[in-house]
Prior knowledge:
Largest sheet of chain B: 5 strands, antiparallel
Distance between the termini of chain A: 20 Å
Number of strands of chain B: 26
Shape of chain A: globular
Structural class of chain B: alpha+beta
Number of helices of chain A: 9
Largest sheet of chain A: none
Number of domains of chain B: 4
Strand content of chain B: 35-45%
Strand order of the largest sheet of chain B: 11-12-13-14-15
Helix content of chain A: over 70%
Number of helices of chain B: 4
Oligomer: heterodimer
Amino acid sequence: MKLHISIALALYVISVLLRSLRRSRLSFIAFLLASHLAMIVVAHDWRVSGQPPFSSMHHVMLVLGACALPGYAIFVMGRGMRWMAPVFPVAGALPLVLALVFRRDEAWHLAPALQSPWFVPHVIAYMVSYSLALIAFLLLVGGAVRSRISAGAFDPSTWESGSYEILSVGFPLMTFGMLSGALWANQIWGDYWSWDPKETWSLITWFLYLCYFHCRKHGALRKYANLAHGLAFAALLTTFLMVNLLPKLASKLHSYV
Amino acid sequence: MPFAVVLMGLSVLLMLTGVLPVRGGGQDAVFLSPVLAFILALLGLSTFACAVRRRVSLRGIGFHLTHFSVVLIMIGALVGVIFEKKFDCRLQRNAAKPLQKIQMGDGSIVDLGFGLSLSAFRLEKYPPNLVVRCGEDEEVEHRLVEGSEISVSGEMVKITRVVPRAAISDVKLAGTPELVVGDEPSPLARISIDGDQPSEMALPDGSTLFIARVYNNLPTMQMGHQFRETSFPSRPGIIAHVIASNSMAIIALEADKPAKLLSPSDPALAPEFPTLRYTFPDILSLAIEPSEDPAAPFVAELLMADGIRQFLIEGGGRFGSYQAGEDSVLTLGRAQDRRYEADLQITRHGEAPLETTLVINKPLDIARWRLYLNSYDAKAHEHITITLRNDPGDTAVVIGLLGLMIGTALIFFLPKRKSS
């Protein structure tokens, strides 16, 4: 299966290269193949184990790598925002790099506490929202870099608006992910919130994205919106990666992933 | 709105102080501090003020739902902080008296209003994985699926049979086990341990060597060790006594390992005895059949690349691992929990006892209490740990959480009015 993941990654990279050569149709085909291949690996793992494959960082990165396609379908195909098409293969490729780095565990088992109807919606909502947050951040950074390179000739507001549109889909999913986690914790342990590091960092992330939306709404605060966005993405990376990988930030309750 | 953004920023800063690691720890005390509570209370008030200032309309339903839900969550949480009763307790299986009263941390006694006792506990485990250890650091786990093949040090090993609960019998050995008395190459005696062995033998110094018992699974005499004799030689061994005129030694001899003096604890007080060694031959074959006995072990049969059949038996000592090649060791991993549940009996004054089952992820509501199954006694399955909780604010929080979810979706997914 590592070969399949490598091929999916290569296809994403090819999609980016083809897009830069203005071969849009071929780029889209490569992107489609890459996403489907990532989904096939996820489906294979699900079928072999008989359980949702969301219990390790490798699996979660795989799912993230497959989440670029739904975003593409909504924004590029659904809302006609073709100019943001090059970002999606990048957003699909980056998690697959990490999927190859993290150890692939084919023999995992779902712990009793995870056997809940909340498990799949909670994780899927978070994964799609994280994928969209990554795309939104790439647009923010891409717009800023392009504006700097063109010495102000390029107006990044279109890209910032695109970033806002993407987060407008991602944030409700993130909200669902966080709050479904609270409802689920209430069901297992009788505690909807315990200030666990993972929970607290996810709340920090949510608050910062909330600040971003409030700043965008209010004229006087609008100039702080991009700062809030950047801080929110940094918090998201901490929530998603650091809490799992650094022992000092470790979460006792979320030690499954 | 700017005030709310400032409050959110302050909340984030305070939460950061609680999650960033510091030397000495204890930083999570900030989450219980009045400062954070005050900031969140101000945020709640600000949210409420924002919600009542805006005119209610169908298009703005998401806005009002989210803002009022936040306030509801905070009110429910505050009620919970003040009035919640929650404690963990242990329920012993078949205890003499049901649990009826709990002593809280402050010394007060809480009467549950019913009696609670544990009548049965059931645990289901996943089959263990096959663990392949290559060298010191590398370890890979594989699912044991009948008919599948795995690569071990470049050679293919086939998993020919997987029996979740196996009755093991008809063990055939490639020789006879022996108790060797004295040093090689000319020991004092070789006693065949074949069931007809002599129970005692005289030693040259006048003491007597007495074979007390022959085991398939020699008990290790460690605290907490659950000894269970097996039908197959998982850890074959002997308990022997050396009896002199004024002293006695009790010795444990595990096959192919040095003898261990069990008694007396001071070797100086034990009689002298010659070198003792218990040799055990290789296993030629054994018979495995599926069993209904819940205590029967898990067995995997492997076909190695050289055509030899090997058995890996859960908890099986000699059968617990197999050296495959120079660097690789095959072993069965620890079986992980799949599911566990507890049968409870609820007794109330004047009513017939109620039997019910408590499962993890499915709390039970009894009287004003909600019961959660937390954990269990992993060694003997004699007790479980449950949480009992009575939180008057819980309903408000749950409604608030659902309202916040739905309101957020309405804000972002309802079509927006296009501005002219």
